[in-house]
Amino acid sequence: MTPRRTGRRPGNPDTRQAILAAARTTFAERGFDAASIRVIAAAAGVDPALVHHYFGSKEELFRATVEIPLDPAELLPVVLAGGVDGVGERLVRTFLGVWDSPAGKAAVALLRSAVNNDWTARLLREFLVTQVLRRVLDHLDVPPAELPLRGSLVATQMVGLAMMRYVIRLEPVASADPETLVRAIGPTVQRYLTGDLPG
Q: What is the mean pLDDT of each run of 10 residues along the chain (199 residues)?
């Protein structure tokens, strides 16, 4: 007589999708920081080792959930190189480089979806805060109490730029040379990152 399996799913083609579905819900409901591999595995009905097998780290699982084709950790050293001066321009330049590349199509699709879908909006918000903005701000000499406002202000510029250039395609922003936009928007992002805040 064959022994019965426990309630966990074996590694099969459906397992990856079950993990992604559980991760999507968990990240959206709890946020990136409070979501754990163990909680996601339990929601998917699999052993935590299978989550690591399919996705590696929690960061990699989160990127797969949000369907971001690039790892911000690989791009941010370019943004942070050279210290505080010019970090706003380097952030805008790197951002445009990603969105103008073939990977930008997936980013545009994600942004369009976030406008119409609350779950996607939550995931995109978590991605921006935990994987991009926090990593940039952690390298700047900024009081911790100011981090949420500074990060949100930077997000208004970056997401607004993405909407106007790639979704709404407002001219002349849509067809502007990237360096023109870097020079125009970079100083504003720099001010949000390191300048004085009102009040």
A: 46 82 89 91 94 91 82 88 92 94 86 87 88 89 91 95 96 98 98 91
> Which residues touch 54 (CB under 8 Å, ≥6 apart)?
15, 16, 19
Dihedral of CA atoms 185, 71, 67, 36 in degrees, nearest 10, equals -120
- Asked if residue 24 lies in contact with residue 119, where contact means CB atoms within 8 angstroms, the answer is yes
What lies within 8 Å, CB to CB, of 117 at 6+ separation is: none
The answer for residues whose C-beta is within 8 angstroms of residue 67's C-beta and 6 or more apart is: 106, 109, 110
Q: Which of 134, 69, 76 is nearest to 107 (CA)?
A: 69
* Token digits of residue 143: 């009081």
Does the predicted TM-score (pTM) go above 0.85?
no
